[in-house]
Amino acid sequence: PVVLISELPWHEMNIDDELTLKCTDPYLQTVEWYFRTNIYKHKHMLADMIVSPFVPVHKIIHSTGNGISVDEQVMATDKENHIISHKYNDVLSTEDDLAKIHAPIVTYDEEETLERFNLIGDILDVIIPVKLIGVNVYGFAPWDDISRYRGVSNLLIDLVERPEFMHKIIRKFTNISLSYLNQLEALNLLDNNTAFDLHCTPIHTDDLPKKEINDKNTTRKNIWGRGMAQIFGSVSKKMHDEFDISYMIETIGQCGLAYYGCCEPLDKKIDIVERIPNLRKISITPWADVNIAAEAIGKKYVLSSKPNPASIAVPIIDKDNLHREIEGILNACRKNQCSCDIVLKDISTCHGRPENIFEWEQVVMEMVSDY
Asked: Which of 8, 199, 246, 267 has CB atoms 3.0–4.6 Å from 288's, for a disulfide?
């Protein structure tokens, strides 16, 4: 299995100024951060990390927005940590609120993009290639957005008490997402040659349809689709299918390959997830039973396992417990002949001890070497 580590608590990990930026220009700081974090990971927690053979310069894409904004209160216990508590006020409770939402207009700032490309090229091109990057994964996670507009409790209650209204909401978000995708396609902003990450997991495959020589633009059939409904960890299979999977079919299901799931347990919902066309990978969270999931997935899809990041949020890592967790994943996948990857992510803290992550990597890499 491929082992990767991502979504790190960088604010706790600056050893000997290895992550201290020296550039003063805001954009050059982002490039410096790209180098420093990749070098840091390669030095301290290599795992199976993949580094692109070029410096990426992302195309600058603007959107006019969808017409509404999140209204929230936040609370932080650590001002350096971007992971904080949120209380969301409901701004999408009526038909009038829903009427305010509209599809955004997408534009590409080619001039500013090329200025950045030329700037980085002048600095680095004799050392390493520089490449323009478009949108290489189409993501659709509408319930993440809806939960921020409505609040989790209001959302879940209305799935039961106002199902017609909730269908109107998800239909509108689906149409908006498809409009966004159509515009990216028309502006030739999709890109299938530069992806090195699929939401923290391996992305490389020969199975995506290739862009034909005579095709002017890269299309959705040439890229991955990425979907999830994390808040639906609290709903039934039937409701999950009705309010999310049915809409995933017409969104990420249009892509060449699809990856579904994030933090929601899907072990008992594999049969509805596999309704998504071109499905290739399914996320199996720490809150799922990996044995049930592996039996249902078998050889059909990649099982993307997410070990519990709480194992490193402690003063001293419990290696015996870590061994049991990873052994359970490996045994389930071996028994059911699953292709799998193991991804440590969602790491909000390492208890100020980056060594915990380094030790996690060493233990897991030793275990998978015998798989």
From this structure: 267
Q: What dihedral angle (degrees, nearest 10) is formed by the CA atoms of 19, 20, 23, 25?
A: 90
> What SS3 class is residue 284?
strand
Segment among 70-84, 278-292, 313-327, 329-343 with least mean pLDDT: 70-84
DSSP state of 309: G
Across 171-196, average pLDDT: 94
d(CA 147, CA 244): 14
Q: How far is CA 303 from CA 54, 281, 300, in A?
A: 29, 6, 9
User: Given a cut of 80, is residue 214 above it in pLDDT?
Assistant: no
CA 42 to CA 53: how far, in whole Å? 14
Kind of pairing, strands 85-89 and 71-75? antiparallel
Most distant CA atoms of the chain, gap in Å? 62
Nearest to 174 by CA among 220, 138, 125, 140: 140
Strand partners, 302: 281, 339
Helices (H), the chain: 26-44, 95-99, 110-124, 142-150, 152-161, 163-186, 237-240, 246-249, 270-273, 290-297, 319-335, 354-368
Element at 130 (helix H, strand E): strand 130-133
Report the distance separating Cα 157 and Cα 281, nearest Å. 30
In the predicted structure, residue 172 carries a pLDDT above the cut 80: yes
- Average model confidence (pLDDT) for the chain? 96
